[in-house]
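TA notes, week 10

Several of you asked for a full example with nothing omitted. So below is the full record: structure tokens for the whole chain, then the designed sequence directly under it. When grading your own attempts, check the secondary structure regions first.
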């Protein structure tokens, strides 16, 4: 079988075998299951995932590691084929390394609609600008923090994020945030790292569009750290969940929720959805810690919707 361009690009990323725990785990799983690479390739192909024998060989020898979307899909499928726990292989992948002229690639903008859905609130809030939505930056690491008050409403929402420029000249990040109550007494946006640009509130969509300026233009592959927050005044709408909509894979995503001691939920659960409107899967319960907080740090962060929901003592569990 001819080697695909994807395979050639994956092979270009070379690392020593001794520094590849992914290769060690992959090789051992193949040995224990008694499967050859040809058989593995056939099973992947049956699932619509085309990976060449050469690429699989390089993976098991530590000569390269999966990085592209198709390759990461293959890793997820390999965990099932090799009867491994979820994340057993994906969690061993190291950070992306430079290949060719640069590391970063512009995000596929069609992925926005595949995650957000047609005519999403993001598309409505941004209008014509949706077609260029963050086309020159890509998120790498995202940390979100929520603080709820004694009335079970979100009062503060903050974001700490590392982004990478996918082309020369990147100068800003645009974020669209959904809020529970468009009738909140006040909505204040601030920036701790980065400079606050345009802020637009769309009450009919219950969204806030925030623009964070980097302060200068970035070169391709250069990173920027931004830190900003939204303060919400008194609200009448009780919060039941929080979601992060991701159109690209993230290296790391952390969601940390602070509950007020006077208003603690019965249970918290994390979940994943492939897109808005899809059913929840990969759900698991999250315990509160001694400070009444809950957090989620997924082993892998594929594009889609990652969220946490909570159930109040006298209200049904949220399914949205």
């Amino acid at each position: 079988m001819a080697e695909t361009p994807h395979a050639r690009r994956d092979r270009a990323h070379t690392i020593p075998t001794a520094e590849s725990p992914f290769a060690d785990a992959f090789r051992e799983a193949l040995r224990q299951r008694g499967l050859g690479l040809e058989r593995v390739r056939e099973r992947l192909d049956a699932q619509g995932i085309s990976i060449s024998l050469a690429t699989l060989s390089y993976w098991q020898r530590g000569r390269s590691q999966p990085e592209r979307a198709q390759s990461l899909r293959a890793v997820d499928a390999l965990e099932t084929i090799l009867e491994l726990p979820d994340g057993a292989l994906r969690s061993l992948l190291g950070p992306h390394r430079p290949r060719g002229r640069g590391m970063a690639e512009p995000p596929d903008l069609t992925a926005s609609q595949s995650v957000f859905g047609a005519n999403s609130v993001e598309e409505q809030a941004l209008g014509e600008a949706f077609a260029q939505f963050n086309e020159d930056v890509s998120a790498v690491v995202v940390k979100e923090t929520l603080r709820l008050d004694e009335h079970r409403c979100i009062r503060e929402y903050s974001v700490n994020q590392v982004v990478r420029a996918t082309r020369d000249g990147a100068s800003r990040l645009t974020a669209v945030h959904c809020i529970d109550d468009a009738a909140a007494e006040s909505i204040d946006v601030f920036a701790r790292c980065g400079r606050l640009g345009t802020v637009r509130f769309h009450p009919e969509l219950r969204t806030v569009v925030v623009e964070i300026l980097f302060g200068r233009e970035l070169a391709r592959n250069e990173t920027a750290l931004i830190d900003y927050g939204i303060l919400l005044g008194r609200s009448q709408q009780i919060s039941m969940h929080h979601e992060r909509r991701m159109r690209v894979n993230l290296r790391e995503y952390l969601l940390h929720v602070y509950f007020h001691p006077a208003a603690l939920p019965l249970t918290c659960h994390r979940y994943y959805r492939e897109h808005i409107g899809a059913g929840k899967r990969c759900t698991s319960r999250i315990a509160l810690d001694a400070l009444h907080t809950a957090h989620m740090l997924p082993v892998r962060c594929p594009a889609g919707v990652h969220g946490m929901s909570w159930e109040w003592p006298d209200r049904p569990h949220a399914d949205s």
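DSSP finds seven helices and 13 strands in the chain. Use that as a sanity check on your answer.
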